[in-house]
Amino acid sequence: MDIQTWTLIIVGLTFLLYIAVAIWARAGSTKEFYVAGGGVSPLANGMATAADWMSAASYLSMAGLISFTGYAGSQYLMGWTGGYVLLALLLAPYLRKFGKFTVPDFIGERYYSRQARLVALICAIFVSFTYVVGQMKGVGVAFSRFLEVPFEQGILIGICIVFFYAVLGGMKGITYTQVAQYCVLIFAFTVPAIFISLQMVGNPIPQIGMGGTLSDGTYLLDKLNKLSTDLGFAEYTSAGINDRINVFFITAALMFGTAGLPHVIVRFFTVPKVRDARKSAGYALLFIAILYTTAPAVAAFARTNLLQTVSNQSYTQMPDWFSKWETSGLIKFNDLNKDGLIQYVADPAVNELTIDRDIMVLANPEIANLPAWVIALVVAGGLAAALSTAAGLLLVIATSISHDLLKNYLRPNISEKGELIAARVAIALAVVGAGIAGMNPPGFVAQVVALAFGLAASSFFPAIILGIFDKRMNKEGAIAGMIVGILFTAAYIIYFKPQLGGPGTPEGLWFGIKPEGIGTLGMLINLVVALLVSRLTPPPSAEVQQMVEDIRIPRGAGEAVGH
Predict the structure, then answer these.
(1) Number of helices (H), then strands (E), in the chain
(2) Sequence-separated (6 or more) residues with CB below 8 Å from residue 461
(3) Residue 240: left (phi > 0), alpha (psi -120 to 50), or beta?
């Protein structure tokens, strides 16, 4: 069978599985819709958290970015992995002990203020929408390739799929669907990596194979360095090493942004006990590590195969995969000198080939000429990664609107049925809006997601961490910090991102900090403003300060304590 037939079969089967699980586990109450009834096991929640966490950015875009940026791409690995450790150790158990459904719930209660809750829910919607735009780009990339349609049509198809099972299941359906999606995506990511590692260096373990030797006796990375420098690119293993300021700022933004992501934090409310939140965090880290340690190897294999396949090759003799990706519009060849050869070089005045970095993981098995079923499996995994995170993010948006805005602000007497309807309408509007924005995103998937992490770092992280560990932090400080932090970060991103209409140029960046890393500076500004304002205004009441003590001192592994 050909690739498209295999892809239709495997993707069709996985989608039937997801839809069946969503129907089986559909939400019948608001508690099941928001936190899956609070009865998910730590192992299942660990898998669901890993799937929620490993979005299209991790599956499709991270290895693609590393394959093009080399050493500099390590900031994504370090930031996202370190951030999850920070979340698991510093935040998850305490937030679970507090016993609230959402981040705006926590901030509203901790800072005893409706205004603080409102600011938090606006930030949650802003962060989640930015993040889901990246996922819709990933969905469009995957659908455009396996259906061989233009990228924009791929996104429209993705909108319909995400809408169906996110609206149907709520958190309960999404949780068990994400367990299935984790199994699909991790199998789909590692199997081709094992195949290619065996093919290139004879080692079935990709993490070790990346440092192995090729059939001619040269080390893989030495070969890749030479291929890169011969074409005018920087050495793969040293590219970006002199841009330490952005390595630091982007890594920090991703780390602290992780700890403020609403769709990840809410996962720790779906387990019965505080002890289970700790266990599920540990399981999730293990499941995440499988993909994150494999990604650098996939990047090195993909880049080596790509350079050897396309550089100075005849356009008319390129393999089928090249023309099929051209159909999607994500590979473009412009024969500047009309010699029929592909000039893929670093010099933009001479370069004739444009490649969207987000295609590398999907194209890698095709470039390596792997069996058709393996190529189809990778597509299914990419869709699982993008759809699982998109569903979790859409649920955060729905919860923020129906629970935090409607229930707590506009219509306190709304019925449970009315609240569920409002949540599903909110998801419908959000997925359509994100799909439209995903057709022209402000960067590659990982870059768009990095922007969302920066927004989360600059808005939520200080408010949450100070809310847990600083009894003196009051509502005035938290509100001022969140507003200043997110406005500064959003303004900088918009100004220096031409895709968003900003007039800024790379030469005008503050201290050379890219928009993907500005969230770190926004977070520091938030922190300073929050601490200063809180010290210049009255302290919280003794009752609130005692509540902070209760959060910070875990009273064992019993049931969560609500306040």
Answers:
(1) 23, 2
(2) 256, 257, 259, 260, 523, 526
(3) left
Read off the pTM: 0.81
Distances (CA, A) of 359 to 60, 136, 154, 201: 7, 14, 14, 23
Helix (H) or strand (E) holding 359: none
Tokens representing 280 are 């599920």
The tokens describing 248, both together, are: 């630091």
Pairing of strands 331-333, 353-355: antiparallel
pLDDT given at position 521: 96
Chain centre distance of CA 163 = 19
Q: How far apart are CA 490 and CA 493, in angstroms?
A: 5
Measured between alpha carbons, how far is 527 from 531 in angstroms, rounded to an integer? 6
Give the number of other Cβ atoms within 10 Å of residue 349's Cβ: 6
The owner of tokens 């459904």 is 101
* Residue in the structure block whose two tokens are 């209760």: 550
Burial of 507 (0-12, 13-18, 19+ CB in 10 A): exposed
How far apart CA 512 and CA 501 sit, in angstroms, is 20
CATH of domain 3-552: 1.20.1730.10
Q: Are 133 and 438 in contact (CB under 8 A)?
A: yes
Residue 418 and residue 425 in contact, taking contact as beta carbons nearer than 8 Å: no
Domain boundaries, the chain: 3-552
In this structure, what token pair is assigned to residue 466?
């100070």
Strand ranges (E), 217-334: 331-333
Bridge partner residues of 333 (DSSP): 353
The two tokens of residue 229 are 């420098």
Tokens of 105: 């719930």
CA distances from 194 to 203, 354, 419 (A): 8, 28, 47
Eight-class DSSP state of 90? I
Query: Tokens 């409607």 label which residue?
Result: 406
What are the tokens at 147? 């259906």
Alpha-carbon distance of 495 to 315, in angstroms, equals 39
**Per this entry, what is the length of the chain?**
563
Query: How confident is the model over 337-359, as pLDDT tens digits?
Result: 889 999 999 998 899 999 988 88
Mean pLDDT computed over 103-126? 85
> What are residue 219's DSSP bridge partners?
213
Read off the pLDDT of each residue in 145-155 and give the average, rounded to a whole number. Answer: 80
Show the tokens assigned to 326. 């051209």
Mean pLDDT of the chain: 82
Query: In one letter, which amino acid is 428?
Result: A
Write the Ramachandran bin of 512: left for phi over 0, alpha for psi from -120 to 50, otherwise beta.
Answer: left
Q: What is the DSSP string of 456-493?
A: HHHHHHHHHHHHHH-TT--HHHHHHHHHHHHHHHHHHH
**Environment class of 22 (CB within 10 Å of its CB; exposed 0-12, middle 13-18, buried 19+):** buried
Burial of 474 (0-12, 13-18, 19+ CB in 10 A): buried
